[in-house]
Every structure is written in structure tokens, then in C-alpha cells.
Design a protein that fits this description.
This protein has one domain. Helix content is about 80%, strand content about 0%. It contains 17 helices and no strands. Helix 4 runs antiparallel to helix 5 and helix 7 runs antiparallel to helix 8. The longest helix is centred in the first third of the chain and has 37 residues. The two termini are about 20 Å apart.
């Protein structure tokens, strides 16, 4: 009972009339810090791209290409973190403090251990990877990409630790903490970029070193906070390694399908990127700018998707099937409204924002309509294609969401986009047309699944 008192007094989540596990106000206190946190996390990549723009266009292309490659591994760590947070959230829903804490520790073990293996692999193959990814790009683009890639590889353990600790904090609704640490990371990255890129003249390498330092500091702060006795989930005793193979298996059962999904998803994007590289450095630069707009446009939606993991996961742990559907609908609605509100200023002032990237006049004219289109599609179609699967995964329906995602992505996002480029003469826009088709198909299939009952019959714990 002491655990329950600490949990409820810390979070203040219960609705006053007890009809719902989370009140509207409680949902807002979870979502809005997540929006700020997501915006700050996206800005790390955007700041790198924008600040190297003043160095050279080849640096923009090289940095953006490595950032796209990094997403493959970022999504891997995020997948394990999300799988672990589902387990933690469901144990919290059951009011099982002991197992929620053990799950949190094992989440960190799995995520950081995986990242160390990734670092060794990438360190040995980094040159071959860049050559393969950008074999049709100019030599300067490849050189800048390789310089930026080295410190980014070294930052992956810190990024994995940050994702795991951030997921644990989200499970206990401590999203303000993540927001504050993300702000510190961005300020450090901004100062580091200015110092290393311009004052010390390190260019793309400086951008990578700055990201490495900021990620390391942020991860260590979140990790240290989890050792406080006042925490809902306190991981004291973490260094007395106690791997719970049953909990680890449950996390892997949720995390591996999502990791496989995310991995194949990013490989498909890299395949498309290689075809865009063949269109020239300007095309790569335009793709980088539109991708940055896409990242910004998805901030509110991804925040609602991450909130859905906590809300639906807690509901599943408490055995509240009605709440699972209730919070899924709420997050879709919130995503549509919040994305539209955050994208409107960027839509109106798209030319001004595009000008900050230092593109040539021809490239800027190509980028502006594509940037405006992505803002519109993220406000209308994206929520149905991504928030519903996050809710489904929170009840354990991970294999279905993985299967739909992989099939739809390769058929429409990859094959259709490559067909448009190679056989119909399309340019950069082909990648985005294929993506919108993919979103439409996902929305239809996931919507049908949501209106059924099978996803609520899964058992995770």
C-alpha cells in the first residue's frame, strides 16, 4: 500500500469521478511535455543540418544522409524502449511495484547491451556503409558523411540509455523531466555546433562531436535521476546485475517485431535515398530539407503515439478494455488538432523557413511545395496510420502491426517510389508520393483491426 500511496501522490492521475484512469488534465500533463521533448529531440538533427549549411552544401547532404542511416539504429533502441515501457506500464496498471522496477532495470540492460554490439559492428564497417549508401554521390558528400558518422556511432550507447530512461519516465508520467533534459541537450548542441563547426573549423565532424557530447550528458542525467528513493520506479541496485530472463523475453516479444519493422522501414528509406542521390547533390539537399519538415510535422503526432503507450498500456494492465479504446480515440483526435495547430505557422511561412537552409534558388523552389504538402498530410492522414498501431502494440498485438507495416511499406513506399523515379521520370517528389500511399493503406488496415476485438485479447504479463 505504501507503493500505491507514493504512485498516486506522485502522479495525480486519477480522474475525480473515477470513470477513467486518466483525466483530461492528466492526459494534457503527459502530452504537452512530450511535444516539447520531441521538438527538442528533432531539433538536434535540424540544428546539425542547418548549421553545417553555412559550411557547404556537400556537408548538408552528408549530414542528412548519415542522420537517415542513424534512424535505423535509433529506431532499434526506441523499439526496445517502447516494448519495455509497455511491460512497465502494464505492471503499473496492476499496481505491481516490484515487477515494474525489475522490468525497468532489464529494459536498460537490453537496450544498452544492444547498442554496444551495434557500435562495434558499425565501427568496423563504417567506410563500407558510407560508400554503399552514397556511391552515386560526389566525393565531398562522402567525405563529410564519413567525418560526421564516426562521433555519431560513438553516441549510440548514450542514445540507447537516454531512450530507455526516457521510456521509464513516460511510464510513470514524468514527461516534464524528459522535456527539461532535452532542453539542456539542445542548448549544449547549439553551443557545441557553433564552437566546433565555425570557431574551430571542424565542419561536419564538429556537428557530430557536438551531438555526441549532448547525448552523453542527457543520458547520464536521466539515468542518475532514476536512483532517487523518491522515484516511483527506483533502480537502486542496478549495478548488481540481475537479468530476469522471463521479463526480458516478454520485452523482446514486443520489441523485436517493432525493431524488425523499424529496421526494414529505414532500409527501404535508404534504398530510396540511394536513388535520389543519383539525381544529384541538389536533389539530396531538397530531400534533407523536406525530411526536416516531416520530422517537425510529426512532433505532436509522435507525442500522442508515445502517450498512447502509457495510457493504453496502463488500461490493459488494469483490465479496462473500454479505456483502451477510449484513449486510442483521444490520442487520434489530439494528434489531428495539435499537429494542425503546430504546422499552420510553418505552412504559412514555408519560403522563409526553407531559406534558412542555404539552398540554391532552384532547389528552394523545388522544396517549398513538397514541404507544404508534408505539413498537410501529417495533419490529416498520419494519425490514423501510426497512432492506432502504437495502441495495438500496447496490448501485445505487435506481430500484426509489424506484418502490415512491412508489406505496405515495401509495396508502396519503396517499390512505387523507385518505379516513379526510374520509369516515369519523377524526381524527389516520388519518395513522398509513395509514402502518402503507404500511409493511406496502413490507415485502412489498422482501422479495421481497431474496430475488431482480437487486439484486446492479447496477454503480455
Amino acid at each position: 500500500m505504501a507503493y500505491l500511496h507514493k504512485f498516486n501522490s506522485t502522479l495525480h492521475l486519477m480522474d475525480k469521478d473515477a470513470r477513467h484512469l486518466f483525466s483530461v488534465g492528466a492526459m494534457a500533463t503527459i502530452i504537452f511535455p512530450l511535444i516539447v521533448e520531441s521538438a527538442l529531440n528533432i531539433m538536434i538533427g535540424m540544428i546539425d543540418t542547418m548549421m553545417v549549411a553555412g559550411w557547404s552544401e556537400s556537408a548538408v547532404s552528408g549530414v542528412s544522409s548519415v542522420d537517415l542511416l542513424s534512424i535505423l539504429f535509433i529506431n532499434l533502441f526506441s523499439a526496445f524502449a517502447t516494448g519495455g515501457s509497455v511491460i512497465v506500464s502494464q505492471y503499473l496498471g496492476r499496481e505491481d511495484g516490484r515487477n515494474s522496477t525489475r522490468a525497468a532495470r532489464n529494459l536498460i540492460y537490453i537496450t544498452v547491451g544492444t547498442s554496444l554490439a551495434v557500435v562495434v559492428l558499425l565501427f568496423l564497417t563504417r567506410s563500407a556503409i558510407i560508400s554503399s549508401l552514397l556511391k552515386r554521390a560526389d566525393d565531398e558528400v562522402q567525405r563529410d558523411a564519413l567525418l560526421y558518422f564516426f562521433p555519431i556511432i560513438l553516441s549510440f550507447p548514450s542514445l540507447a540509455l537516454f531512450n530507455a530512461c526516457s521510456a521509464i519516465a513516460r511510464s510513470t508520467a514524468r514527461t516534464k523531466r524528459n522535456m527539461a533534459v532535452s532542453l539542456v541537450m539542445n542548448l549544449m548542441n547549439l553551443a557545441g555546433n557553433y564552437t566546433l563547426i565555425y570557431l574551430l573549423g571542424l565542419g561536419a565532424l564538429g556537428a557530430g562531436i557536438s551531438t555526441l557530447i549532448s547525448r552523453t550528458v542527457g543520458a547520464l542525467i536521466l539515468f542518475a535521476l532514476l536512483f532517487r528513493r523518491s522515484e516511483v520506479i527506483c533502480i537502486r541496485g542496478f549495478f548488481h546485475i540481475d537479468v530476469d530472463f522471463d521479463l526480458s523475453r516478454k520485452m523482446m516479444r514486443l520489441g523485436v517485431p517493432q525493431a524488425l519493422d523499424s529496421g526494414l522501414f529505414t532500409l527501404g528509406k535508404l534504398l530510396i535515398q540511394s536513388h535520389i542521390a543519383a539525381l544529384g547533390t541538389s536533389a539530396l539537399a531538397v530531400q534533407a530539407v523536406v525530411s526536416n519538415f516531416n520530422g517537425y510535422a510529426n512532433i505532436a503526432g509522435m507525442s500522442c503515439a508515445l502517450a498512447a503507450v502509457t495510457l493504453v498500456g496502463r488500461s490493459a494492465g488494469a483490465g479496462r478494455l473500454d479505456e483502451e479504446r477510449y484513449y486510442t480515440r483521444w490520442m487520434i483526435f489530439a494528434s489531428i488538432v495539435l499537429t494542425a495547430l503546430t504546422c499552420l505557422p510553418l505552412f504559412i511561412f514555408t519560403p522563409q523557413f526553407v531559406s534558412l537552409y542555404g539552398l540554391s534558388a532552384e532547389s528552394a523552389q523545388m522544396a517549398i511545395p513538397l514541404c507544404r504538402l508534408i505539413l498537410f498530410m501529417c495533419s490529416t492522414l498520419w494519425p490514423f496510420s501510426f497512432i492506432i498501431p502504437y495502441a495495438l502494440r500496447s496490448t501485445g498485438d505487435a506481430t500484426f502491426t509489424m506484418s502490415v507495416s512491412i508489406i505496405s511499406m515495401w509495396l508502396f513506399r519503396v517499390i512505387l517510389a523507385i518505379f516513379l523515379i526510374r520509369h516515369l521520370g519523377f524526381g524527389v517528389e516520388a519518395a513522398w508520393y509513395g509514402m502518402y500511399t503507404d500511409w493511406a493503406v496502413r490507415s485502412l488496415v489498422y482501422g479495421i483491426r481497431y474496430h475488431g476485438r482480437r487486439w484486446q485479447q492479447r496477454k503480455v504479463i
